[in-house]
Amino acid sequence: FVSDFRSSAAADQSIHVQISSGMLTTRMDAGQLTQIITNLVQNGLRYSRRNHPSAQVWLNLHHDRESDLPILEVLDDGPGVSEQHLSKIFEPFFTTESKGTGLGLYLSRELCESNQAHLEYIPRPHDGGSCLRITFAHPFKTS
Fold first, then answer.
1. At 118, is the pLDDT very low, low, confident or very high (cuts 50, 70, 90)?
2. Parallel, antiparallel, or unpaired for β 55-63 and 13-19?
3. Cα-based distances in Å from 102 to 18, 50, 92, 105, 106
4. Residue ranges of domains in the chain, CATH in brackets
5. Measured between alpha carbons, how far apart are the two ends of the chain, in Å?
6. Cα 117 from Cα 135, distance rounded (Å)
7. I need a labelling partner for 45 at 20 to 30 A (CA). Which of 24, 39, 102, 128 fits?
């Protein structure tokens, strides 16, 4: 995903990747995961651009220390989600954009759930911006 993104990204768009040491295994449909990450990265870049002349996002892949489940965080340095919108961001057709459909986060969450993963918004009050976290199902257990 990252190499494809970088090859097609605009000059003022950057993606940074941090992967914790060790092997990370997930159990998820690859096409659906690509669709989810594409949506989250595009959202992050759009909101990053609101605060900065060049847009950037960070992908942070690691294991949760308590559950040992694989985690992917997509972080941006945009304005974050306002308190009044927090409860609505995963609802279908909710958007704050004039051109948006309001389906991106909704579909991303639905695709995660269909793969036994969980997508949530994590506020970043000290750093600013947003974090959308995917907690993947245990790679070797089935539900």
1. very high
2. parallel
3. 29, 18, 6, 7, 7
4. 13-135 (3.30.565.10)
5. 27
6. 6
7. 24
Neighbours of 132 (CB within 10 A): 26
Please determine, for residue 10, whether its predicted confidence score (pLDDT) is greater than 90.
no
Largest CA-CA distance found in the chain, in angstroms, rounded: 45
**What are the φ/ψ torsions at residue 90 (nearest 5 degrees)?**
-100, 5
- How far is residue 53's CA from residue 73's CA, in Å, rounded to a whole number? 23
Q: CA-CA distances (angstroms) from residue 111 to 62, 70, 128?
A: 20, 17, 27
- Residue whose entry in the numeric block shows the structure tokens 């092997």: 23
CB 78 within 8 A of CB 44: yes
pTM of the model: 0.89
- For 76-102, what is each residue's pLDDT tens digit? 999 989 899 999 999 999 988 878 888
